Amino acid sequence: MNKSYVVGKSKIHGRGVFAEINIPKYTKIVEYDGEKVSRAEGTRRHNLQSKKGRFYIFELNKQWDIDGSKGGPGKLINHSCTPTCYYTIKRGKIWICAKRNIHSGEELTYNYDVLEKNTHLCNCKAKNCKGLM
What we know:
The chain is mainly β. It is 9% helix and 33% strand.
């Protein structure tokens, strides 16, 4: 799989991930990787991270979470209420995929779907932004 993205400064939050080339709809872009931890440990880390406005814990299945804070560039993909991407879990891996055709230079985003609904500010600035995640 060729690298189709670059990391750069985001208008949404800190750093973000951007399409370096045009990416067709449904393309697997990057694996959301990191440290595999038990659900209990994932919950503990999530509670600590979310207090700082960070969301790196991803539910892999009923037993395991992935702590993306220990992972690669997938952790830098920001939340949006109008995301360009979605995530899918296949064979124990979390993939970030294109929800639609993405043009070179566009920021890659997905809906974080956080556990504590409407408790964290959203900075996505989308036309349909709910203001909270």
